[in-house]
């Protein structure tokens, strides 16, 4: 049977009634014509589609991660900024929200990074894995620069890829069964890592808190230092000074009380000193300036906001040998084990940059960049003060904490973004104690900071 005959047989045997008019089909050199019968109504019955089944494993989701609320604060701010930019493609959006540095890294530091990178292409300069704890010259430089005379030695220091990463490693050390306290408001990584680790209860929407976390309320009324007489005993106390987001710095007397509180309760303080170089007051730069702190505290810090290393990634954590568990076992040995298990050490290229940071020329260059950001802070502080707002922080940190009493932080964030095209950070993202506040970052090019302040004045005058 020819192809044409096959086609004719196939079509004529079909029950379809879609051929309602004469139809001609040309197959190569032949013409084949089909005449339709009397036109009739066409009815089509769709064959039922098989329901797609999605394959699922038999692995249960981590119930602790499921406790987390919405997205992590800073990606959520970035998401809303991006949506705003799509809505207003021609607007010049200024970001004073996420605390990311903007000014170039000083050349004395980048040249050291480049030199180390180029050396890796030579037999003499190549190096592979380094010590997980960090290269000894850098650890020694950190000890002598930031902890001189405080009894902190090179082998107490662990160089890392940033303080935020070390916070999660410390949570691995402490495990799921510890209790924890945190300043309220505070950097959200402390709480979120605690939730993921399984240290907390469920999120309580009525109070905007997680169960089993002790929220140490920090307000203008108590000078942003918690009333320790009202704080319950916990195993771990996260404390940041100068504080992110409030910009406040604890005094020597306040930190002395905190250390004594930890001793009385047998607690461990995780002290975040990532903004210590921004200190203008005569307040402690390190918790280890307080007598007895080495027995109850460890400290984490970073080059991110000192040298513009937010993308380079380099920080450190100090765990004194004197810090012991209840059974007398040194905490430093467990931290070392976690570091060796989960980390191969900071980039050797970045560590070369860290050493350059701590040279006399590097320290001078870092101080100049920090001074630039502090000038930005003063401009922002003066702007909001002139508009009649209650403004906090600024003096000892690159953050300005502005009070909008009776208003939702996210509503204020949205209004500022919509009407000025300036990105800030809603205070409630740092904990329930941040509701009614907005954090304004001083990290920005000078012209952008001045323009943002001009827009603030236009909005609130």
From TrEMBL:
Residues 92-456 form the Aminotransferase class I/classII large domain. Belongs to the class-I pyridoxal-phosphate-dependent aminotransferase family. LL-diaminopimelate aminotransferase subfamily. GO terms for molecular function: pyridoxal phosphate binding; transaminase activity. Pfam families: Aminotran_1_2. The keyword Transferase applies. One of its GO terms (biological process) is systemic acquired resistance, salicylic acid mediated signaling pathway. This is Aminotransferase class I/classII large domain-containing protein.
């Amino acid at each position: 049977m020819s192809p044409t005959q096959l086609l004719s047989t196939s079509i004529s045997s079909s029950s379809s009634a879609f051929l309602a008019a004469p139809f001609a089909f040309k197959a190569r050199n032949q013409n084949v014509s089909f005449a339709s019968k009397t036109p009739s109504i066409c009815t089509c019955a769709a064959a039922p589609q098989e329901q797609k089944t999605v394959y699922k494993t038999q692995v249960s989701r981590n119930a602790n991660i499921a406790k987390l609320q919405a997205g992590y604060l800073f990606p959520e701010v970035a998401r809303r900024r991006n949506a705003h930019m799509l809505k207003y493609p021609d607007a010049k959006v200024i970001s004073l929200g996420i605390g990311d540095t903007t000014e170039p890294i000083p050349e004395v530091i980048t040249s050291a990074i480049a030199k180390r990178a180029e050396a890796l292409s030579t037999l003499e300069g190549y190096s592979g894995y380094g010590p997980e704890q960090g290269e000894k010259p850098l650890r020694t430089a950190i000890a002598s620069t930031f902890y001189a005379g405080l009894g902190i030695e090179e082998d107490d220091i662990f160089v890392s890829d940033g303080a935020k990463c070390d916070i999660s490693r410390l949570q691995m050390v402490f495990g799921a069964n510890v209790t924890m306290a945190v300043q309220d408001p505070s950097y959200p990584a402390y709480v979120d890592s605690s939730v993921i680790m399984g240290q907390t209860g469920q999120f309580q929407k009525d109070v905007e808190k997680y169960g089993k976390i002790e929220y140490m309320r920090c307000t203008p009324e108590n000078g942003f230092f918690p009333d320790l007489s009202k704080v319950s005993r916990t195993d771990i106390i996260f404390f940041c000074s100068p504080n992110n987001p409030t910009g406040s710095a604890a005094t020597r007397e306040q930190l002395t009380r905190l250390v004594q509180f930890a001793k009385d309760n047998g607690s461990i303080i995780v002290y975040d000193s990532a903004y210590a170089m921004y200190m203008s007051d005569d307040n402690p730069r390190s918790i280890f300036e307080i007598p007895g702190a080495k027995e109850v505290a460890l400290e984490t810090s970073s080059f991110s906001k000192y040298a513009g290393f937010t993308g380079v990634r380099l920080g450190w954590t100090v765990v004194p040998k004197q810090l012991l568990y209840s059974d007398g076992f040194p905490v430093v040995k467990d931290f070392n084990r976690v570091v060796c298990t989960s980390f191969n050490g900071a980039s050797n290229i970045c560590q070369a940059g860290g050493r350059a940071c701590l040279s006399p020329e590097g320290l001078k260059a870092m101080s100049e960049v920090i001074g630039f950001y502090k000038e930005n802070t003063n401009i922002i502080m003066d702007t909001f003060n002139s508009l009649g707002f209650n403004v906090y922080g600024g003096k000892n940190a690159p953050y300005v904490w502005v009070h909008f009493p009776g208003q939702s932080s996210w509503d204020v964030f949205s209004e500022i973004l919509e009407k000025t095209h300036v990105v800030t950070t809603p205070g409630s993202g740092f904990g329930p104690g941040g509701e009614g506040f907005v954090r304004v970052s001083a990290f920005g090019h000078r012209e952008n900071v001045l323009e943002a302040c001009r827009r603030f004045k236009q909005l609130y005058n």
